[in-house]
Amino acid sequence: MRQRIPLLTASLIATVLAVLPACGSPPALRGAPAASAPAPAASATGPGRDPGEFSRQVDVGDGRGLWLSCKGSGGPTVVLESGLHDSSDTWTFTDTRPPVPKAPAVFPGVAAFARVCTYDRPGTIRYTDPPALTTRSTRQSGTRSLGAMADDLDRLLTAAHVPGPYLLVGHSFGGMITRLYAQRHPRKTAGLVFVDAFGTDMEPYFGARWPAYLKLLDNPGTPFDADPAFEKVDVDGAIGAVRAAKPLPKVPMAVLSKTRPFAAPAGSTKALLAPLERAWPEVQRTLVELGEQTPHLLATGSDHYVQLHDPDLTISAIRLVAGRIRFGR
User: Fold this and answer.
1) Which of 53, 89, 213, 309 could form a disulfide with 302 if both were Cys (CB 3.0 to 4.6 A apart)?
2) pTM, entire model
3) Contacts (Cβ under 8 Å, ≥6 apart) of 136
4) What is the pLDDT of residues 310-329, one digit of tens each?
């Protein structure tokens, strides 16, 4: 059975919970420590390991720590930002079918030609068996603002002394985080890759159903919904923050978009899915128009999780933008 990953991460956990008992853990997570294991406090080293490779919790102030993993060498440093509710695990395993190769996943694939980092936001899901909220980053309760998420990313990269400027890669709602980060920190931003990313122009397609859609995003019907630490976000505030911020810097960009429908989460209705499908192509075109000569790559046969189903295409898009950054300076 092929693991199915759904609608804007909102129904992801429900689907994974349903599939894992039959399929086992995602390939790259088989044999991984349980999600309840404590986060490593220091960089991991061992025979044959690149000394520049580490996975550890980084102090970002206010008694909080965020788990960060980096590997590879060479600029620009690539930063992978996951979608709503997703930990960094979505960059470390694959769910492919021929002719797309099973390996490498995006994180190790990018590490072959550049320094690459990814991290766990608080309240996001580890794809262990069974899935669980990450304990690698300090728990945090309440609805979060996009500004706070972008600030966390900046504090993390600064505290860990990750060299910039950064090629920011955002999947789904992670594209909103990288977008606001770039608007706030143009000198730290070298390029952007949007992986089937969320946009600011969706509400008109939903009309009166917009509040129901936002409720579904924050409460997708999983065992984690009632946990105060489960990641929830102010989407309306996020859209307002992006619109109010300064324009994006003029840097190389690329957009990857799905071609298959979103997988329907449990309890969702056609009344919510239909406007989402109508809106999505327009959202992607708007992202393309944010930059000059921005490639728009269609992941034929992929649903929303392009980095899982087409990791080679995702890696290629990142490599393309990295090349434009290197040779355009």
Assistant:
1) 309
2) 0.87
3) 39, 57, 67, 87, 120, 126
4) 999 999 999 999 999 999 86
